[in-house]
Amino acid sequence: MSTDTALALGLLALLGRGVPGQVRIFLLTVFVVDDVIALIVIALVYSDDIRMTPIVVAVAAFAVMLAVRAAGVRRGSVYVPVAIVMWGALLVSGVDPVVAGLAIGLTAFAYSPGRAELEQVSGLFRSFREQPTPKLARTASIGLANTLSPNDRLQRIYHPWSSYVIVPLFGLANAGISIDRPFLAQAFASPVTWGVLLGYVVGKPLAVIGTSAGLTWVSGGRIRPAVGWAGVLGSGTIAGVSFTVSLLIASLAFTGDQLAEAKVGVLSAAIVSSALTWTAFRVTNMLPRDKRSRALFGDMTELIDLIPDVDEKQDHVRGPADASVTLVQYGDFQCPYCGKAEPAVRQLLGHADLRFVWRHLPLPDVHPQARLAAEAAEAAAAQGKFWQMHDLLLDHQDRLNITDLIKYAGDLGLDQERFHDDLTSHAHAGRIESDIDSADNSGVSGTPTFFINGRRHYGAYDITTLTHAVRMARARARLSREAPAIRERPGSVDSTARR
Predict the structure, then answer these.
(1) What is the distance between the alpha carbons of residues 346 and 372, in angstroms, rounded to a whole number?
(2) Cα torsion angle, 364, 367, 372, 376, sign
(3) What are the residue ranges spanned by the domains of the chain?
(4) Which of 264, 295, 445, 457 could be cross-linked to 228 through a Cys-Cys bond (beta carbons 3.0 to 4.6 Å apart)?
(5) In this structure, are residues 281 and 19 in contact, taking their beta carbons and an 8 Å threshold?
(6) What GO terms describe the biological role, i.e. biological process, of this protein (predicted)?
(7) pLDDT value at residue 388
(8) Nearest to residue 433, comparing CAs of 482, 374, 489?
């Protein structure tokens, strides 16, 4: 039954960068379906003496919760009574109330904070800075928390309790068995232990690989895993790591010695599945580079996060137009984090197969001189010196008033009078707005934000992390170029489907 998501991901983390992010995403997708099915099994198989009236009450409570969410209510105190009614109704109905947790969790949607909401919060903090009263402090604190999605806020509140209190207590209460040589001999002679062990070690990989292969075949290759088959295999083997939900189901299904034997099967499966996963990725990483990339990434075309795509005529571009990797940065010339990222970007520009694109996202609510600096860069671009001005502005982030900007124009040999007129008339404001609109359409609310080949980069932007991300993007780009030829080979899935 259900994989232990946190434990499996933790074990994968021990394998380091040999496991790409795409494999982890695929794995999480498998785990979500896995959890849903496990809880459905609990509801249908391990529920006795079902009573319909309480179930109707539970469904009605869930409908009320959905209606409250649709109305935009964000106060947790409104949801708690409805959730308690739903849980209590399922408890009385004979259906295991753990199902209520799944249903309630599905109502907590996730999204990134919007730029408008962040600007509003900046205004609240400015008000507090000008008048530091308890009332304004509370208003600013609530406003900051409200920019986060319900999913993020609930994780922030409950994660310490669930991870450091509830789950350890559950493990101590349910996993405790006395292990000695006679008991192990008895357990490994039991069909219960071997049923659990083989179910995880053999059944899980077969289910993940078989379902993925079946969907690929039935759809003629139109629906297939977003990773390579080595990634699918590794996801299947690590899915054999289980703990919490599997122990819950074991406690519902068995008692006495059989329950202890089932627990031995669960713990043994975690050890064997971890070893199989290490072996699968170890062997994969020993393959030649091209074969390794295909085994891990497959040949799926990735979804694009960047809107609009890079336009050589519109965007400011450094590097060859035919580069296999395009790194786009939304930046703010006064943002200290953009300044910290700049050395890494300049080091990356030494790569011959990379082009770099800068798009403006000034944040005037926190960086009052950022908008003027962006217009100065565009005024320099009008005279053919965008990148020279770009570098100067990031090197002098603490000196961006109009006098400094005109001095920089002179240092670059620009027509200072024309440059001054462009700044005072805001001649290039429309160009800045165009970049801001593209940031909004791409879901960007802060700086620096990077996109690599159209996909948003999440995480650190130091040289090591960015170099690794660029290397992975280059490998995927190479696979994308090779994929059409492979799909046209006789006997391939796509060519067979077309015939």
Answers:
(1) 24
(2) negative
(3) 1-32+176-300, 316-482
(4) 295
(5) yes
(6) regulation of pH
(7) 95
(8) 374
Q: What tens digit of pLDDT does each residue of 150-202 get? A: 888 888 888 888 777 877 777 667 666 677 788 888 888 999 999 999 999 99
Q: What is the pLDDT of residue 428?
A: 94
Residue with tokens 């994929």: 483
Distance CA(250)–CA(1), nearest Å, equals 10
Query: Average per-residue pLDDT in the chain?
Result: 84
Q: What is the pLDDT of residue 490?
A: 46
Rounded distance, CA 280 to CA 204, Å?
Answer: 15
Distances (CA, A) of 489 to 340, 484, 493: 48, 9, 9
Q: Are the C-beta atoms of 89 and 50 separated by less than 8 Å?
A: no
Cα–Cα–Cα angle for 328, 333, 334, rounded to 5 degrees: 135
Which of 55-64, 297-306, 345-354, 413-422 has the lowest average pLDDT? 297-306
CA angle 182, 171, 10 (to 5 degrees): 105
Model confidence at 338: pLDDT above 60: yes
* 222 φ/ψ sector (left φ>0, alpha ψ -120 to 50, else beta): alpha
Supply φ then ψ for residue 96, to 5 degrees.
-60, 125
Q: State both tokens at 129.
A: 């800075």
Task: For domain 316-482, say whether CATH 3.60.40.10 is its number.
Answer: no
Neighbours of 81 (CB within 10 A): 11
Strands 325-331 and 354-360: parallel
Rounded Cα distance between 69 and 78, Å, is: 10
Q: Which residues contact 225 (CB under 8 A, 6 or more apart)?
A: 26, 212, 216, 231, 232, 298, 300
Band the pLDDT of 327: cuts 50, 70, 90: very high
- How many other CB atoms are there within 10 angstroms of residue 105's CB atom? 11
How far, in Å, CA of 410 to CA of 481, rounded? 46
Encode pLDDT of 406-464 as tens digits. 999 999 999 999 999 999 999 999 999 999 999 989 989 889 999 999 989 988 888 88
- Spatial distance between the Cα atoms of 219 and 9, rounded to a whole number of angstroms: 30
Residue 299, pLDDT score = 65
Residue 374: CB atoms within 10 Å: 28
Residue 414 contacts residue 421 (beta carbons within 8 Å)? no
Q: pLDDT, tens digit, for every residue of 47-90?
A: 777 788 988 999 999 999 989 888 878 777 888 899 999 999 98
Model confidence pLDDT, tens digit, residues 192-226: 999 999 999 999 999 999 999 998 898 887 788 87
Please write down the long-range contacts of 350-354, taking CB distance under 8 Å and 24 or more positions apart: 351/325, 351/470, 352/320, 353/320, 353/323, 353/324, 353/325, 353/474, 354/319, 354/323, 354/325, 354/326, 354/327, 354/470
3-state secondary structure of 318: strand
